[in-house]
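User: Show me an example of a complex going from sequences to structure tokens.

Assistant: Sure. Here are the input components:
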Amino acid sequence: MYDYSDFDEAFVRRRAAEFRAQVGRRIDGSLTEDEFRPLRLMNGLYLQLHAYMLRVAIPYGTLSSRQLRALATIAERWDKGYGHFTTRQNIQFNWPRLIDVPDMIDALADVHMHAIQTSGNTIRNVTADHFAGAAADEIEDPRPIAELIRQWSSDHPEFQFLPRKFKIGITGATADRAVTRAHDIGLRMVQDQAGTPGFEVIVGGGLGRTPLVGQVIRSYLPKDDLLPYLEAIVSVYNLWGRRDNKFKARIKITVFENGIEAMREAVEAEFEQRRRKFAGVSAEVLADIEHRFPQPALSPQGDGGLAAAKAADAALRSFVDTNVTPHRVPGYGIVTVSLKAHGATPGDATSDQMRAMADLADEFSQGEVRVSHEQNLILPHVRLADLPAVHARLKAQGLATANAGLLSDIIACPGMDYCTLATARSIPIAQGLATHFADLGLEQEIGALKIKISGCINACGHHHVGHIGILGLDRAGVENYQITLGGDATENAAIGDKVGPGFAYDEVIPAIERLLRAYLALRLSPAETFIEAFRRLGAGPFRAALYPDQVETDAA
Amino acid sequence: MARAFTPKVVTANALLEGDVVYLTARRTWSRSHADALLLTDEAEAAVRLLEASAQRDRVVGAYLADARPGPNGPEPIHFREVFRTRGPSNYRHGKQEATLAHV
């Protein structure tokens, strides 16, 4: 794991002291809210529906056990004893008092964390494949590069007032678990003919009001050229990006309006200029980061009796089959710890659960925990032999739900239960779906399924790329939910299509049940997943299941 | 023709905790919607909002929200305002937590 340099430490401490003074001036009346608002947003502090909210960056979703314990303590001391993990691998505290926030930020700085650039029109927290450094399908761990990008983008003087926010996602694997095609810049590690790792650079992806799948602007970029190339993209965007209309200000619109060819040409020209100024600096810094990023020494081994333990314990078998992913080193597994117990709020973890995870990380996973954009926690390096012990400990904390990748493993934004931008609630829909299908006993039978719920058009809940997407809207003062089908967040990224009119709050769960019962009746075999069946059959039969009355009317 | 004015309350968030507050007839702030002053005159509503917004050391983001008279005082109309009177639906946090403590 990366360890802060003296420079990082001094920078974060300086910003913490600066923000403490700003909060003091707001409370004593020297600063108006209009003056204070941009300052608090630069430090991740929002004012939400019922309280302030502090959004803390978890760079590339990696936490040490020490950091996770500090988050647990912060939640307990200054919040309500829990934290909410988000689709951008951040953690949000929903109930801080303004006066306590400087102390919270100091406590974060103690463990090399901060809330800088988690808001505002800047380059946000860099997100990464949550299986990075552990996945069997990975070319290289992308996190040293992600750290390089974090350092470059933090307080970058040219990019503090971009036309709009800017999100970068990175993966080093073939399977895209980082939704790179829905980012302002997505980076997918690829190899050239000699096998040297570099990056495919994707630009102009994004969800929100105008969902667009990113386009490849450079099919292979050597690692050494990454920073000047990223800088070229962001600087072209900084000049070309629209500042006249907030809804057209993201780079996806810049790319869409100017065309990828014009964008590429301008970026390449700018890149030539910038590259000279970098002159090998990024390679030097990267070498230093890699040095500060020691990889755990794991030696291949057998399954340590796991097969026999699974045979003797059905709950363990189900957990291992559903929540454990193959590791690059034989004899190890990557454990997805679901924060989606049936009926729980997706992404929430109590302080006790965070501490339990930190203990498990120390004992069984090299002291490391990951946060996934799917709002789960990951123990990345667990010996297969230790899985029975890990499972038993998770069970005691209510963290052993065997539902990774299944129906109840739902992404849901905070929605109108917390967010000022929301137009409807998301969390109770997610809770209701999870418990309803658990009660029906259909979750296992339905199998792999991605349901994603957003409480407004901004799409923090990634509904556009859900196999089933649910978007909560306000229709004439009543909550109304639009359903989209066929979205995909992987390397085959696709935006789901709206299939018909929205549903009232109480109608959503019955509608999804009709849809999924139709899938069960239509699939060729249990091996054909919902999304595969949807692709084979098209929207027709699923639309008919969602809107049975409409079909009767049409037929009449 | 201009749309007829519908009754409003002045609401905001408290500066220190961020909790939802309502302007009362005594020009103080209450945590309870039922204590809010129901404004039925458009001009008075505009003046009260200006006064409220000027209290920048106490509240943030004051605005006018639709409301109607009820047996115990003004009641919210839009579901967003209803949620603001009690807190989130996934935990008994926010105002509903305080209500519990009093029971």
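The lines above are the inputs; the final block is the predicted structure for all two components together. The interface with chain A takes residues 13, 15-20, 56-57, 60-61, 77-80, 83-84, 87-91, 93-95 of chain B (CB under 8 Å).
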